[in-house]
Structure prediction request, 200 residues.
Amino acid sequence: MVMTEAAPGQRLPDDREVLDWELFGQATRALARAVVASGFSPDIVVAVARGGLLPGGALSYALGTKAVGTLNVEFYTGVDTRLPGPVVLPPFLDTEAFHGLRALIVDDVADTGETLALVRELMGSHCAEARTAVLYAKPHSIVTPDYVWRRTDRWITFPWSALPVVERPARAAASMNGTGIDPAITGEPPEEQLTAGRAQ
Prediction:
């Protein structure tokens, strides 16, 4: 996945593709129609985490494919900064269970194509057939995906990574009543109010 959010001291390019949620829906439907038109009927959709999670989920629904797996791969560490090569991270897929299946590998973008190449090779060694689908493909990608919604050489802003990470003040984390959910969302009183009520 290409990170959209700029790291401290970095600036995103002004000339870029911007994918919003509505266009995302149109893009995944178009990809699903392309898969169906090709005659390929996947038994399982494999989403490359994290960028392929939402496209993979949307495509699995559009194609009626209930079996979905995820493969965690890290490559990009910031804006245009990456590791020497993509690395598969735990938890790992049970690739032995893929024997004889047709898999559709989904990611948000084929930028260098190295991540997609790694996953395609891994899945291809276990599946009967593995094809790839991406929202965007860059011209310098070493992989030519089987299904592409749009080709571009520009930087891409995705709706799921366009905003900074939501940060929680330390005090707010302590007032979640042990549920992990902010009482302001659930309407429940903070823990200190519950404690005071029990003491009366």
